[in-house]
Amino acid sequence: MQANHLNPQWQLPSLTDGGKRLARRVTMTAAMALALLAAGCRQDMHNQPKMIPQRGSDMFADQRGARPQVLNTVARGQLHADSYFYTGVVQGANGYREERDLMPFPVTMEVLKRGQERFNIYCTPCHSRVGNGLGEIVQRGYKPAANLHDQVRMAQPVSHYFYVITHGYGAMPDYSSQLTPADRWAVAAYIRALQLSQAATAQDVPAGTQVKALSEEAAEQDLPASYAQPWTLPAATLAQALPSDAKQGTPAMAPAGNPNPKIVIPPSKPAPVAAK
Ligand code: HEC
């Protein structure tokens, strides 16, 4: 017996033609989307050989991704053929390096202005704007910076300043990362201008140029009279730059005793004693 044992209520209603078309379209779209997705997942572009900074590489025997410069080659833009411009020294006849009182390029007003700007930014904290070595940091205890107007400094060739900026000098850090070689030369040239300015007379400027005294300038600009006077280290500074008592050590160290008698330290907290 071919009896339909299914309850007619349970049978799905048969689809109309429109319904069938819709179902086909949905299936097609889904299939296409899947195909596209699968194509997007291909790894070819990602896996192409390339260097990733700070990562290893199977390409080279030493497995290093960061490559050292190839021996005996010069990278583009790194040919420092003008070695005086980059080092400030030349090979002397005796085989030693020699400094020269010579600028590697012409000193224009533009160069001096650049030098003044860089000097005021990087050098004044220690050497002061006039270059006498009594900058704000020195007034607060840093080792006195060189007075660029003393006999020794005046006699130094201009490339010595370049050399000092490049390599530092004694307690002075180097400024090679802050100043490009061209900027270092500009600062060196400006130091010469500063030196000239401090002892200049009316004979040093072209005839007919009006020379004004600093005191006149101060009065005109309503600046205090001290503006025109030689700069000196103020008597009372936050820290003593040069301790009179050797036991107090260098300015960078804490003073041995209570530096200020007005501050009373309670007996329960004895004054710190410097290590012997
Ligand atoms: C953090 C403080 C500091 C700064 C900033 C500084 N200097 Fe100095 N400079 C010193 C000190 C300190 C000395 C003396 C070094 C010593 O005797 O140990 C010195 C010495 C010098 C000397 C003399 C070197 C010699 O042969 O006697 C020159 C020139 C000089 N500095 C130039 C500069 C220039 C140019 C700049 C700016 C680019 C600069 N300094 C920035 C602290 C500084």
Bound molecules: heme C
CATH topology of the domain at 109-200: Cytochrome Bc1 Complex, Chain D, domain 2
Distance between the termini: 117 Å
Rounded mean pLDDT score: 79
Q: Name the shape in a single word.
A: elongated
What does this entry look like structurally?
With 276 residues, the protein is an all-alpha fold. The chain has a domain at 109-200: Cytochrome c-like domain (Cytochrome Bc1 Complex, Chain D, domain 2, Orthogonal Bundle), CATH 1.10.760.10. It is built from 9 helices and 2 strands, in the order ααββααααααα. It has helices at 17-40, 83-87, 109-122, 124-127, 136-139, 151-155, 158-167, 181-198, 214-220; strands spanning 89-91, 97-99. Strands 1-2 form a two-stranded antiparallel ribbon. A hairpin with a 5-residue loop joins β1 and β2 (97-99). α7 crosses α8 (181-198). The longest helix is centred in the N-terminal third of the chain and has 24 residues, at 17-40. The relative contact order is 0.08. Residues 236-244 and 248-266 have low confidence and may be disordered. The structure holds heme C. Residues 122-123, 125-127, 137, 142-143, 145-146, 153, 161, 164-165, 169-172, 175, 187 line the site of heme C (HEC).
What secondary-structure arrangement, pairings included, does this model have?
Layout: H1 17-40, H2 83-87, E1 89-91, E2 97-99, H3 109-122, H4 124-127, H5 136-139, H6 151-155, H7 158-167, H8 181-198, H9 214-220
Antiparallel strand pairs: 1-2
Heme C (HEC) is lined by residues 122-123, 125-127, 137, 142-143, 145-146, 153, 161, 164-165, 169-172, 175, 187.
